[in-house]
Amino acid sequence: MTKNTNRWNRRQFLGTSALGVAGLTILPSFTIDKGTAGHPKPSKLDKLLKDSSYVHKEISQDLSECAETRWLNKKVEDFVTIYSTGDSENLRVSGRATLELSQDKKYEGKNCICLTTDTSIENIPSRPGCGLTITLNKTDLSAYNRISAWIYPESTGYYNFYFPVTIGNPGKAQSHVACLLPNTWNRVNWEIADIERDAVERMSVSLLLPGCPPEALPTVKIYFGEIRAEKVQADDDWGWELKDRIAFCHSGYLPNMKKIAIAQNVTDKNFRLYNESNRAVYEREVREVVNEFGTFYELDFSDFSACGEYYLQVDSRQTKPFIIDEQALDASIWKSINFMRLLRCGEDIPGVHSACHLNCKSLHTQTQATVPNFGGWHDAGDLSQFEICTAEIAQAMLELALRVKNRDKKLYERLVKEGKVGIAWLLRTRFGDGSRALAVSYGMWRDNVLQPDNESIRRSVAENGPFENFLASAACAVAAGIYKEEDAVFANWCLRVAEEDFYFAKKGYEDGIYTRRWGTNVDAQVCGAAALAAAELYALTGKEEYVRIGAECAQTILSCQKSDYPDWKIPIRGFFYENPAHTKTLTYEHRGHEQSPIHGLVRLYELVPNHPDRAKWKKGLELYAEYVYKTCELTYLYHLLPAHVYELDKLNIERFTVPASHGTLEWAHGDLQEQVKTGIKLGENAYLRALPVAIQRRGYHATLLSKAKAVSLAGRVLNDKKLLQIAMNQIEWVLGKNPFASSTMYGEGYNYHPLYVAYSGQMVGSLPVGIMTKGHADLPYWPVLNSYVYKEIWGHTTGKYLFVLADLV
After folding, report:
1. What is the per-residue pLDDT across 559-602, written as a single tens digit (0 to 9) for each?
2. Which of 259, 342, 544, 585 could form a disulfide with 253 if both were Cys (CB 3.0 to 4.6 A apart)?
3. What average pLDDT does range 306-325 have in this prediction?
């Protein structure tokens, strides 16, 4: 190891090429063809959104606002070389690879070590990897808090590779997953302040072999340059403190809704709002808010509604530009749609993949029949696809399309077109007896050749799930109404399937059927989906049978709701239990469906106006609103919607992912209870948490946005502006009004982190699983470290985001 004795050379610090910064070149995103950096000026916004080239141009995003650009420009105070270019000592190769000193590739004048591997792994049962391990002999790296490594993957036909880089003390090592572009030098850069590193035995750099798609060649060469441990000013990544940052919604604000930014350590009495000409157009006094986490200041300019481009200033600090406009969130909607376009499976996606997974099928275990399961969208970075997510994403797009139809024809048409991708997959991957493709794991890029002796292509097993079939029924019912004008045959197919799947789901629920992956049925959730589907089918067909069934489901929903005040120090009602017996509270750790019971009640209330139970449905919605108001008052933190009321004796361990490597179920149950206890104590065994509890699957955008959808639905049907504002606050959290002042949508706003994309490159419009927690504390955590699940791109999150906006824009 070589100690730094000179000031860091700027050319070295920035890397050999701007395009070589790991993860910073974005794939074609089908987004705006002009003005994508930052925000377009309102004077240009209307032209931008109506320009027909808006959804057809393939461009690269301006990267100046990406957090990784900021990280790379941090001053390096000191560094030590962990690995010198060309050094073959203390190296060990693992997996399917060979190691040699290259005579062709050089880094800063030195020949590089080359790792050569073969990506043809389709017929290997367990997907292999390869890597390089550097022996460090218990080196103390505690004086350094960042790793920088230069890596050059050489390949033909690939768009991206993902490389886990692992370092830390024995038993405490953590992996940062870098997104590397082929055929250029990439700088892997990540902060390790949270990792124990005073006795590091080894560091490893691995490549998870991605498979070999038809457009690629199997040989991949990986060249290594320098690897260094550096000392920089580390990011603040844990807790509620802002320090010198200002938290605001980076995309902007709607004119008739609240407009609030949050700051700390303010000395000025007033703040100012400036327009694009740098003229102060508004000034008000800052509002002090004190809670257990510190003193915060609200910059509230809600009574200013003039459309335009602005920035805020308080003390010597100012925000980046944002807009006030009725279309302030439209750019994020377009980017979200186009992100889903990039996730499509089974067709050529420029810059991402050729037509993929054409030889993948789902198997009906009783009949041995199969259906091709390509199509739809890759749901996450790991190329999986789940029916639940596909159904909800498609319905979210179609509901949003109806919302914008009269104001923006092009956006309407684009939503309808993309939504059809999901609906078509739901139609094609069912067996017509209740069984369907539910959990599809493609796992790798494949050659699309159907070999007669290769049964591994049948790895996905079909199942019959009541919740899944109710979701498909609801989505297809909404689709039938939308597509009837443009494609009557498709619309009739949607309606026929919606009715069939409704009764498959009803029978499955009555028979107690449930899926192996998701466990026993949650009455409040399943009956919510059933009531929703029944209401939509009644609106299409006029059949009173759907009203009867929907009303029965609504009775079950309401019986799951806490309607009386418990004997707690802080009594709260209006939340839901899983079942009418109230033995388990309705909570979510990862995927979120809290909107389900509310969605069912809302659509029945809207579509069956003369039903004798309508007042009961409204009362249930009002009780839920009361619950939301009360819990928001108790946890005033960035206007964040609190996660759940937890009761220690009513935690359902079945709803939590507990890998065997983490411990026993008994241990997990105890750990979850300890997490719960860090929340606000409501009663003897009852607590309120700002963020959900979880063991492994931490990251909470989906749980947050599913609850926000419940709130936006109730707000819309009750005409409650306060509820609608609470829902909007959650959109703002996602888009930058959080303690890290970080937009979590890649390519939208400012300070957005590179995400865990695995097989694909970074994609504009992608949302991750979400901001997570660390340990037992009820505190947000958003580290530089890039890994699953919290930073993994997830169509489910995007679907929830669009679902909420369907009630707001």
Report:
1. 999 999 999 999 999 999 999 999 999 999 999 999 999 999 99
2. 259
3. 98
Write down the pTM of the prediction: 0.93
| pLDDT at residue 473 tops 60 | yes
Whether the per-residue pLDDT at 53 is higher than 60: the answer is no
**Look-up: residue for tokens 């060649």?**
217
Question: Are the CB atoms for 262 and 247 separated by under 8 Å?
Answer: yes
Helices 466-483 and 387-404, axial angle in degrees (round to 10)? 30
By DSSP bridging, strand 186-191 and strand 146-154 are antiparallel
Whether the predicted pLDDT of 457 surpasses 70: no
Structure tokens at 151: 């890596």
Q: What are the residues whose beta carbons fall under 8 Å from the beta carbon of 71, sequence distance 6 or more?
A: 189, 191, 235, 784
Residue 609's CB: how many other CB atoms inside 10 A? 8
Give Cα separations from 354 to 343, 386, 556, 628, 739 (angstroms). Answer: 12, 21, 47, 46, 40
Give me the residue label for tokens 């104590």: 681
pLDDT digits (tens, 9 = 90+) for 166-192: 999 999 999 999 999 999 999 999 999
Tokens of 438: 């539910």
What is the total residue count of the chain?
Answer: 809
Sheet holding 287-291, edge to edge: 260-263, 294-300, 287-291
Place of tokens 């993309």: 418
Share of the chain above pLDDT 90, in %: 83
Q: Indicate the residue type of 253.
A: Y
Beta strands of 232-301 (E only): which ranges? 252-253, 260-263, 270-275, 280-285, 287-291, 294-300
Tokens of residue 425, six digits: 């997959």
Residue 230 CB partners (closer than 8 Å, separation 6+): 76, 77, 78, 79, 144, 145, 146, 147, 148
Q: Report yes or no: 284 and 271 within 8 Å, Cβ to Cβ.
A: yes
The residue among 532, 523, 370, 375 whose CA lies nearest residue 450 is 370
Interior/surface letters 81-95, b for 16+ CB within 10 angstroms, e for the rest = ebbbbbeeeeeebee
Cα(728)–Cα(16) distance, integer angstroms: 43
pLDDT at residue number 25: 34
Q: What is the mean pLDDT of residues 720-726?
A: 98
Instruction: State the Cα–Cα distance between residues 751 and 736, nearest whole angstrom.
Output: 8
Q: How far apart are CA 163 and CA 165, in angstroms?
A: 6
Residue 409 CB: number of other CB atoms within 10 A? 11
Q: What is the four-CA torsion angle of 52, 55, 58, 59, rounded to 10 degrees?
A: 90
Most confident among 27-41, 84-98, 203-217, 665-679 (mean pLDDT): 665-679
